[in-house]
């Protein structure tokens, strides 16, 4: 039987406010455990929450970015459940009246297709604390620094039909919220976490199958692997005569092992009721319009600008425009070197490869945009070749200085002295009589390709520092003179 996968996502986005959603406690990452949880976050008797206006502004920014309806009246409910890192015994969230209503996000797939993924809604809520299981000798520690950090939870419709579509959607959301500046996007720090709802059904069926929810994925790669594993598990289970149980699951990306966590709860299990400590929050048209006027350039518009302004391909422009920090890096590099295509190639090539190898973001690159632009400028003015440029880049990455410093210190300047190069070319031709005879005996249309055989010895003789373009001209002239 042929099966169809159905996927929906719930995405938790930590908002980049300096204080928490209902208190003045700091949201800074990395502080000592339990040093940033105040009495309000812990629901101590006599404390009252005060909504953070910036959290509402950020939520509205997201809603406008996905062309969603904005809820002008936001109501907070208490979602009641017990968990060790939830000190209140409930989570303050939104159920009936979320701040962001239906919207949509456009994704682009590898085969060039585009698809619109519907957003059901996005609501404001507070984050819980964090359970720590290392270094406690069989026990767990509780860090409540994260408790009360403002989140928007983005809930999609079940519109995705493959892991590729789900990952493309997750990446697009990451691109949107980081471009807006409402989230730092640091998934390793929990700034974005994905809950993936997965079911399968016979191809062509209209009714959805029973879904499972895998929680707290913080990597696009983990999401892709998790979906593949769960789809295979569900299909095997059904084809063996079993049935899928609605449940919450966990996936360990390091071990690639998934397991059942608990049976899936329904909304009534949480005993939602309106929060008695918080009045409804009303937002007027003036507030929404003021937020709209402050929206920065969004990824799709940035991609189009890169195509028009820098004459990049749709693919290159899309890759560079997806991340706001990468976009800024690319544009700064281009301004420094004056060549957008070369800048794009280096950012997507050497820079990206080194960042991926060391699991760094571009904001932590040891080679900044101005340094990269300086290196590309030395390629353009023929000071160094592309091959030597990669050596220079490696030295820059290791902290040995800027391009000019390294080129001078290592004596890497490209040889462009015509007289010196002519002598080397003559010597190489004289030392390779068999290669010369083969070239002379070849058909005219094959000589250009065979001329490349002389380049290896020439570059070896010049320690890779000869100007390739100039060498080609000299070599062609010398060989043609022997016809």
From TrEMBL:
<comment type="subunit">
    <text>Heterotrimer of A, B and C subunits.</text>
</comment>
<keyword id="KW-0547">Nucleotide-binding</keyword>
<dbReference type="InterPro" id="IPR023168">
    <property type="entry name" value="GatB_Yqey_C_2"/>
</dbReference>
<keyword id="KW-0067">ATP-binding</keyword>
<dbReference type="InterPro" id="IPR003789">
    <property type="entry name" value="Asn/Gln_tRNA_amidoTrase-B-like"/>
</dbReference>
<dbReference type="Pfam" id="PF02637">
    <property type="entry name" value="GatB_Yqey"/>
</dbReference>
<dbReference type="InterPro" id="IPR004413">
    <property type="entry name" value="GatB"/>
</dbReference>
<dbReference type="GO" id="GO:0070681">
    <property type="term" value="P:glutaminyl-tRNAGln biosynthesis via transamidation"/>
</dbReference>
<dbReference type="InterPro" id="IPR017959">
    <property type="entry name" value="Asn/Gln-tRNA_amidoTrfase_suB/E"/>
</dbReference>
<comment type="function">
    <text>Allows the formation of correctly charged Asn-tRNA(Asn) or Gln-tRNA(Gln) through the transamidation of misacylated Asp-tRNA(Asn) or Glu-tRNA(Gln) in organisms which lack either or both of asparaginyl-tRNA or glutaminyl-tRNA synthetases. The reaction takes place in the presence of glutamine and ATP through an activated phospho-Asp-tRNA(Asn) or phospho-Glu-tRNA(Gln).</text>
</comment>
<feature type="domain" description="Asn/Gln amidotransferase">
    <location>
        <begin position="328"/>
        <end position="479"/>
    </location>
</feature>
<dbReference type="Pfam" id="PF02934">
    <property type="entry name" value="GatB_N"/>
</dbReference>
<dbReference type="InterPro" id="IPR017958">
    <property type="entry name" value="Gln-tRNA_amidoTrfase_suB_CS"/>
</dbReference>
<dbReference type="GO" id="GO:0005524">
    <property type="term" value="F:ATP binding"/>
</dbReference>
<keyword id="KW-0436">Ligase</keyword>
<dbReference type="InterPro" id="IPR018027">
    <property type="entry name" value="Asn/Gln_amidotransferase"/>
</dbReference>
<dbReference type="InterPro" id="IPR006075">
    <property type="entry name" value="Asn/Gln-tRNA_Trfase_suB/E_cat"/>
</dbReference>
<keyword id="KW-0648">Protein biosynthesis</keyword>
<dbReference type="GO" id="GO:0050567">
    <property type="term" value="F:glutaminyl-tRNA synthase (glutamine-hydrolyzing) activity"/>
</dbReference>
<comment type="similarity">
    <text>Belongs to the GatB/GatE family. GatB subfamily.</text>
</comment>
<dbReference type="InterPro" id="IPR014746">
    <property type="entry name" value="Gln_synth/guanido_kin_cat_dom"/>
</dbReference>
<protein>
    <recommendedName>
        <fullName>Aspartyl/glutamyl-tRNA(Asn/Gln) amidotransferase subunit B</fullName>
        <ecNumber>6.3.5.-</ecNumber>
    </recommendedName>
</protein>
<dbReference type="GO" id="GO:0006412">
    <property type="term" value="P:translation"/>
</dbReference>
<dbReference type="InterPro" id="IPR042114">
    <property type="entry name" value="GatB_C_1"/>
</dbReference>
């Amino acid at each position: 039987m042929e099966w169809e996968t159905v996927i929906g996502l719930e995405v938790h986005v930590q908002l980049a406010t300096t204080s928490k959603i209902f208190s003045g406690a700091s949201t800074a990452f990395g502080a000592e455990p339990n040093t940033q949880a105040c009495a309000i976050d812990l629901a101590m008797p006599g404390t009252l929450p005060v909504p953070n206006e910036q959290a509402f502004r950020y939520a509205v920014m997201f809603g406008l970015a996905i062309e969603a309806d904005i809820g002008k009246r936001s109501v907070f409910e208490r979602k009641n459940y017990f968990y060790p890192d939830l000190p209140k015994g409930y989570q303050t969230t939104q159920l009936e009246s979320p701040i962001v209503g239906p919207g949509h996000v456009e994704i682009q797939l590898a085969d060039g297709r585009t698809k619109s993924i519907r957003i059901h809604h996005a609501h404001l809520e507070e984050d819980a604390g964090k359970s720590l299981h290392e270094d406690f000798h069989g026990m767990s520690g509780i860090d409540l620094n994260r408790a009360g950090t403002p989140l928007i939870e983005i809930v999609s419709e079940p519109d995705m039909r493959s892991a590729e579509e789900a990952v493309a959607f997750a990446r697009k959301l990451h691109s949107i919220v980081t471009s807006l500046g409402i989230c730092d996007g640091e998934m390793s720090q929990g700034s974005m976490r994905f809950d993936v709802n997965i079911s399968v059904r016979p191809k062509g069926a209209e009714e959805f199958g029973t879904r499972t929810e895998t929680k707290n994925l913080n990597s696009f790669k983990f999401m892709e692997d998790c979906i593949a594993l769960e789809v295979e598990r569900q299909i095997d289970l059904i084809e063996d005569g079993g049935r899928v149980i609605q449940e919450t699951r966990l996936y360990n990306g390091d071990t690639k092992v998934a397991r059942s966590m608990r049976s899936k709860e329904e909304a009534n299990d949480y005993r939602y009721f309106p929060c008695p400590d918080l009045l409804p929050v009303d937002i007027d048209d003036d507030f929404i319009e003021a937020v709209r006027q402050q929206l920065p350039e969004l990824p799709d518009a940035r991609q189009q600008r890169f195509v028009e302004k820098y004459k990049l391909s749709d693919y290159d422009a899309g890759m560079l425009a997806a991340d706001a920090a990468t976009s800024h890096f690319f544009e700064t590099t281009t301004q420094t070197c004056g060549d957008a295509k070369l800048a794009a190639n280096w950012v997507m090539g050497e820079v990206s490869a080194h960042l991926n190898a060391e699991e760094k973001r571009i904001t932590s690159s040891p080679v900044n945009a101005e340094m990269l632009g300086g290196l590309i400028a030395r390629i353009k003015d023929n000071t160094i070749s592309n091959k030597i440029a990669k050596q220079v880049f490696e030295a820059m990455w290791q902290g040995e200085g800027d391009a000019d410093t390294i080129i001078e210190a290592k004596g890497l300047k490209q040889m462009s002295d015509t007289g010196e190069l002519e002598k080397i070319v003559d010597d190489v031709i004289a030392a390779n009589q068999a290669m010369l005879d083969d070239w002379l005996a070849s058909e005219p249309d094959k000589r250009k390709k065979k001329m490349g055989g002389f380049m290896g010895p020439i570059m070896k003789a010049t320690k890779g520092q000869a100007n390739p373009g100039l060498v080609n001209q000299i070599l062609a002239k010398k060989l043609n003179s022997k016809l």
